[in-house]
Amino acid sequence: DDPDDPATSKRPSTFLNVVALGNVGAGKSAVLNSLIGHPVLPTGENGATRAPISIDLNRDGSLSSKSIILQIDNKSQQVSASALRHSLQDRLSKGSSGRSRDEIYLKLRTSTAPPLKLIDLPGLDQRIMDDKTISEYVEHNDAILLVVVPASQAPEISASRALRAAKEYDAESTRTVGVISKIDQAAAEPKALAAVQALLLNQGPPKTSDIPWVALIGQSVSIASASGSAASENSLETAWRAETESLKSILTGAPQNKLGRVALVESLAAQIRNRMKLRLPTLLTGLQGKSQIVQDELVKLGEQMVSTSEGTRALGLELCREFEEKFLQHLTGGEGNGWKVVASFEGNFPNRIKQLPIDRHFDINNVKRIVLEADGYQPYLISPEKGLRSLIKGVLELAKEPSRLCVDEVHRVLVDLVSAAANATPGLGRYPPFKREIVAIATAALEKFKNESKTMVVALVDMERAFVPPQHFIRLVQRRMERQRREEELKNRSSKKATDAEQSILNRATSPQQSGGSLKSMKDNKDIQEPSSLKTAGPDGEITAGYMMKKSGKGSGWSKRWFVLNEKSGKLGYTKKQEEKHFRGVITLEECNIEEISEDDEAPAKSSKDKKSNGPDSGKTSNLTFKITNKVPYKTVMKAQSTVLLKAESMADKVEWMNKLRNVAQSKGGQVIGEQSFPMRHSLSDGSLDTMARKPADPEEELRWMSQEVRGYVEAVLNSLAANVPKAVVLCQVEKAKEDMLNQLYSSI
């Protein structure tokens, strides 16, 4: 074909081009014949190729391995390899007298060749191969450069002009493959073979180390062709395998996957793939730029007119899909004001809860007024439960307004997002009435979700107002009785007569082993003079450690555990064994009360017969026990336990544990039930409700104390609402806006 012909001048992409570079007699044509599978190109030691030859190969698996189809224009003709070779030799000889650079173009179809375009250039050391001619073929930035060097020249490969040309146009060797030809001719040259093996192992000179090298003999195709038509159909495959075996015998230390014609095809394919990956981003960018030009042109021309109701409906739904995509981007992504929803949950709403006028409601005069209005004057000191319930309901009622305001804030954010998404949808801008309709439908749906959300958050508050756990008031009465009992002990302790009378009562009620006393009497008791077994550590002795028995949270058994108290951090932790490094549980004493308990408190379900059967040592053992509870009712102390029962190993250990725990709890804001002593054991009548009712120490002080307990409960409930109201808002408004609102939009359209 004439390359100047306009019909053939448009060449396809150069991704599949392979350009052979090498000096005269390097074996370039033989290497390309090996790729084609037929001896089509003329070969010879004195430079058979005197002009560029371009062969466009197409693979046709239906042909036999001996067939070659020559395509000229739209016509196909079967030819033989020898006929083609002689034709090329005649044409080359005619142009040899001058400086002809005309390219010879062939288009062939075979079953043996890969679908490549092979370009066989004359030797680079010929006169016609100047820099301009070389660059004309090599500078195409996607063509694979096939550098062919004979094995005998491998030791001086750094001086190869072909290698220099390849490095000039492909410095990073992303599209270069090296071929060492004529291995058989250098079989008797150890120096050449050593250089070849170094190249194959990528251990050659620096310029060659990043190029994939393949070794060839290059005569397999000629041998297979010379076998004649009588040869079997697979004679070419046999010749290629024989060539590979010969190479293995000559290059014993070379990698097996770099020998022969198959290795050459795989190396070419790998470089083509690498080049495509390298060039793909640039190609995509160019395509996107052209696509944008087309889109801009379409916008100028206008869209196709819709003339049917089905077309109108399809257009409307398409615009709805665009709006949905923009709305979700604004809500969940960073494009819009979706962050304002979280800002409301974490900022305005909790702040409004904290700013509720709780102090005014828990003022003692207000508490007294509410209790009197609810219970009347007489019973409120005995059982102010009804009045305190009324106080709790009144304070929790205040939480409704911040909850409603949170719902309104989120609603305004969602309405703004709808408007912003509609404005950001390009298609809606061309249909203003339709845009207004979409915004109206979406806003109406959001209004419905807002009302549902308000109902939900108000119901959450009403749930807390409607049911206050009765255990809370039982605990109030118990603590009030304990408080009055301690005051009675303080009064009795002030006079020696009262102390003697109390000791007499104790001696009559219990055995000597069961009797207890105040902390002072414990210290004075000669029976409790053993030293404490606890260990201390730290610069100021702030770490205290020792064994105690801990009552299991699941059953009634006791387990021996190693406890460590850190007075600086205010935490008490325990492990199963002393050598363990990680605590199995930690108690924050700042939030806790520390109480001395008796055997009756520890096991109230025991009958009198059971207590007698426990033996004389049962009282002594129970005196070693104390408990830790949370000062806020119904909050856990550790894990799922609301009460932790502990038992010291000796009375001396218990005294030291109680003193240190009491000091830490008081310094960190906790409470110690029992003042500075362990409470004395009383008879049942001494702490009865009747006695408490007959002798109220200070009614107003009692009421103030109970209101503080109720306030702790209310604050815990408000904290719970601050966490749960946002969940209800997300469920009723945000999630429905993402699904139900858009579904309603589609159905309405």
TrEMBL record:
Q: Where is the composition biased (Basic and acidic residues)?
A: 485-500, 603-614
**PH domain: which residues?**
541-666
Q: What is its EC number?
A: 3.6.5.5
Where is the Dynamin-type G domain positioned along the sequence?
A: 12-281
Location of the GED domain: 703-749
Which keywords annotate this record?
GTP-binding, Hydrolase, Microtubule, Motor protein, Nucleotide-binding
Keyword Electron transport on this protein? no
Recorded hits in SUPFAM superfamilies, A to Z, give: P-loop containing nucleoside triphosphate hydrolases (SSF52540), PH domain-like (SSF50729)
Query: Is the keyword Coiled coil assigned to this protein?
Result: no
| GO MF entries | hydrolase activity
Q: Which InterPro entries match?
A: Dynamin, Dynamin_GTPase, Dynamin_GTPase_CS, Dynamin_N, Dynamin_stalk, G_DYNAMIN_dom, GED, GED_dom
What protein family does this chain belong to?
Belongs to the TRAFAC class dynamin-like GTPase superfamily. Dynamin/Fzo/YdjA family.
The protein's name is: dynamin GTPase
Organism per entry: Stylosanthes scabra
What gene codes for this chain? DRP2A_2
